[in-house]
Amino acid sequence: MDAVPLLNHAGAALPPVDHLVWGGRVLDEEIQRFQAWTGVRPVPGGRHPGEGTHNALLGLGPDMYLELIAPDPGQPPPVRARWFGLDTLTDSRLVAWAAKSADLDRQAGAARRAGLSLGEVLTGRRELDRGPVLSWRLTYPGVRLGSGLVPFLIDWAESPHPAQAAPGGVRLLDLRGEHPEPAAIREDVRRLGLELHVLQGSKPALVATLDTPRGRVELR
Predict the structure, then answer these.
(1) How many CB atoms lie within 10 A of CB 71?
(2) DSSP label at 109?
(3) pLDDT digit string (tens) for 129-153?
(4) Which three-class secondary structure state does DSSP give residue 147?
(5) Is the pTM of this model over 0.85?
(6) Cα 75 vs. chain centroid, distance in angstroms?
(7) From 11-25, 117-131, 206-220, the region with the lowest mean pLDDT
(8) CB contact set of 203 (below 8 Å; sequence gap of 6+)
(9) Superfamily covering domain 17-167
């Protein structure tokens, strides 16, 4: 049986979101912020060894989550810039989104041939606070096309999906973009075989609407 697509509150299908990425400077502050906004407290996820970051997670469904990510003061500075522009981030905000991919190499290769390079395919790992290690494959998140409006791709393969251990009660209702050149962003996303609703805006912004125990919350 075919999977039933998730619909936004306007009745249109949501893109295949794996997770949204919210960037901040201090992880504990972002956890408190989201608990106040949603009524649900994100749980610490773990550290990204060598990348200089750590995160916390908030579930958005059985296989979808929100990642809060910030520099990890317990790690030495990484040899390269931290992902998602965290080193120069001045305001906490949505910085990127990841799309599910069941055939990452094929999808990334097709995009490359269409003129959209997502960078190299990497193997990632995260040490959980409880001891186990998650692993995954993804296109390089340091390539932030369209200021984060064009997604990177991720495949968890045999690892358990992080959403399974994240606190629930929050649901993604809508995801859209804003950009001074919306048609160009929409075309880049289509080169991945995906669709994202992108509106005219004065500056690039990724905008998500959440249904939470404290009502609707808009992130950008």
Answers:
(1) 21
(2) H
(3) 665 677 889 998 888 899 999 999 9
(4) helix
(5) yes
(6) 22
(7) 117-131
(8) 178, 179, 180
(9) 2,3-Dihydroxybiphenyl 1,2-Dioxygenase, domain 1 (3.10.180.10)
